[in-house]
UniProtKB/TrEMBL annotation:
Keyword Transport part of the UniProt annotation: yes
Official protein name in the record: ABC transporter ATP-binding protein
Alphabetized UniProt keyword annotations: ATP-binding, Nucleotide-binding, Transport
PANTHER family per record: ALPHA-D-RIBOSE 1-METHYLPHOSPHONATE 5-TRIPHOSPHATE SYNTHASE SUBUNIT PHNL, LIPOPROTEIN-RELEASING SYSTEM ATP-BINDING PROTEIN LOLD
GO molecular function term, any single one: transmembrane transporter activity
A GO CC term attached to the entry: membrane protein complex
Organism: Virgibacillus pantothenticus
Family: Belongs to the ABC transporter superfamily.
Domain of life where this protein originates: Bacteria
One Pfam family matching this protein: ABC_tran
PROSITE patterns, A to Z: ABC_TRANSPORTER_1 (PS00211), ABC_TRANSPORTER_2 (PS50893)
Keyword ATP-binding: yes
CDD domains (UniProt xref): ABC_MJ0796_LolCDE_FtsE
Amino acid sequence: MSEVILEVKNLTKEYKGQGFEVKALKNISFKINKGEFVVIMGTSGSGKSTLLNILSALDAPSSGTIKLNGELQEKLFKEPNASFYRQKNIGFVFQAYNLLKDLTVEDNIVIPLILQNMNREMIDERLEEILNVLGLTKWRKHRPTQLSGGQQQRVAIGRAIISQPPIILADEPTGNLDFNTSNEVLESLYEMKNRFNQTVLLVTHDPTVANYGDRVLFFHDGEIVGEYECRSENDLESILNIFKKITERSKIQ
Ligand SMILES: Nc1ncnc2c1ncn2[C@@H]1O[C@H](COP(=O)(O)OP(=O)(O)OP(=O)(O)O)[C@@H](O)[C@H]1O
């Protein structure tokens, strides 16, 4: 039976201010199994960033629970618990790469293991494998400014995966890349997830990107309004159709 890595239950988030109240997440529930690549695809303002912020412990939910690796994350939203939780549990891949510009490719990739005080021999062993799978061996001594956008994002993927965290959260990881580079980066991410049985949750508004997932959850107006199991590379049309229906419905409302 598949092992559940992340379980989100009845999650809500309300933002209240002077004269406004927004329900950014309305009773969201879903599960992700170990090794699954799940994509959250949604219209603008559907609550994708809100969800990622909560899963990263950058923001607290109004109600609901998050279980990661079988552990209920109750006291999560208070520093220093939040930083510790992030370091232990989450690999991040951002749209803007967020690499340290003064460090080489290899030093950027090993940061999470240095923070964990792993011994150098083990670090080097993992580093070689990651550089190899990501095709970055040749660039290992380069600094981020000496790399293309696609190469920088592959470094960020290496950094996210090297500690094999329970989950990788990827926020529009190919938003700054052209179509071909975007596909290359997503193929790298997919290959890495297969190699290490890594669980990935990726957020996007782009159907082509969503097509790389094993499963797509469709978000609209703070709710999960659809789900699609990807079976082959020909899923793009189905994903597009579902997304079109969702956006058309939102125009009617
Ligand atoms: N700090 C905040 N204060 C008030 N409202 C907020 C805040 N952050 C988000 N919202 C509102 O919550 C809703 C969901 O926003 P969110 O940023 O999660 O959407 P999104 O799906 O990530 O959108 P996009 O794809 O455009 O980035 C929106 O209506 C937004 O205006």
